[in-house]
Input
Amino acid sequence: MAPRRKKIYEGKAKILYEGPEPGTLVQYFKDDATAFNAQKKATIDGKGVLNNRLSEYFMTGLTNIGIPNHFIRRLNMREQLIRQVEIVPLEVIVRNFAAGSIAKRLGMEEGTALPRPIVEYSYKNDALGDPLVPEEYIIAFGWANQQDLDDIVSLALRVNDFLSGVFFGVGIKLVDFKIEIGRVWDGDFMRLIVADEISPDSCRLWDIKTGAHLDKDVFRRDLGSLTDAYTEVARRLGVLPANATNIKPTLIN
Output
């Protein structure tokens, strides 16, 4: 077997290795599932395969409508080649309906439609529990400037429009999601692009008719099989054959 490339970074759900060409990385999707800032952990067989394929699907869709992102191509069942970026140390959260922390903070019933999509930021720091931060903090501490934030909001809302439409078309409500943003340089020109992943790990997805959860809340709240939920999302989107029952041999190449 070929020697494993140098590991650059390992997170809760993915590992980054140096890429075959300068300016690239190999992103490996693990089967690990975590919740509550990694206080709850498990290994879910096949989760990494599904998230690799689903993130490929969404990133390719973004590329096709002109939204820049780090995805280059899928390498195999668990790995994809991505562009190396400088990650802005923020999680960018877009909310369409009240759920999770915003419902608790504001005493809202989960599922309440928000007046408009709300964009929030959390500071990427596991030790601190990824706290929510206002724009004033972001600018004061130099994590991003005002122009960056304007561009990030524009990117986030464009991603929201795309994902909302895609999911609605297959009977799924996009309650909320989070993305990460990276900086890339073309010569002296810096631009911001969507990075990390887009998958049921990073989205809150409910079946429009039944309200069933099809996202990581299944794991957080012990609502059933996480693999079954993610497989259902993949099947509806056409990433899996309609009659797929075992994700390993039936994934479309």
Q: What stands out?
A: The longest helix spans residues 146-168. The longest strand covers residues 172-186. Residues 246-253 have pLDDT under 50 and may be disordered.
